[in-house]
Amino acid sequence: MNSLYMKNFKERVIIALDYDNLDSVRNILERLKGEAYFYKIGSALFTSCGIQSVKLVRDYGCRIFLDLKFHDIPNTVYNAVKSAGELGADIINIHASGGVDMMKSAKKGAIEAAKKTGKNIDVIAVTILTSLAQEDLRDIFYYSGHGVNSENLKSGNEGNVSNLVLHLAELAKISGLDGVVCSGYESIEIKKVLGDNFKTIVPGIRLKTGKIDDQKRIMTPSAAFNSGADYIVIGREITGADSPADALQNIYSDIEKNALTLK
Ligand code: C5P
Prior knowledge:
single chain; binds cytidine-5'-monophosphate
């Protein structure tokens, strides 16, 4: 493994702060101080504690993935992304299904915010939520034969979910976005088709593939990096551990020992 990558890999591990109060956030930031560099704030924490949660993570000198999955008309998303960027988010995500104009507006908002903050802000697309299966897509988009790709969705062909993921990822790239959130399995294909510069952020990470909680398509940290992930997102494996610091070290050890990918 190349030494530049080794030096930086800890900055590519994003810890999900799935809490509803600032005390729990402060507690985990304190326990992982000096060892963790990137945190994810999702809609549950943000709607409970608001911008204080972002400020708290920034006070610890760490970077922020603001996972609010915007999906609205282009002008509203432009303003939301610009505000999120000005607040200090380093990564912001939106739904690719909001369309090309919405995604372009999101990127424009991030560029505007970056002019103020002086740092790069990545805008990342969510393609198909991993909680949705083929039959859910059929229920959402198929209506009396007039739905999107209705014949294929009716057929129950599992391959269509990954085709749709790839299609939405392509739209995100065309719109000027920086990458997508996806499973490690999808990351391999997305990198192959859309190139290595198009980033993949991979959740669903577990050290042992036996323990799965509600995640369906899981990978070990090193396997996710070997599938080309630029970042991995880990929540309960760390935040639910008796010793979050030890859990994080175990994750780092797996990456150091088994990740082969050179970045
Ligand atoms: O606890 P766990 O490691 O499963 O947490 C994963 C985090 O990544 C959660 O915050 C979850 O909302 C998020 N996420 C995910 N799958 C996606 C997108 C986001 O698990 N497809």
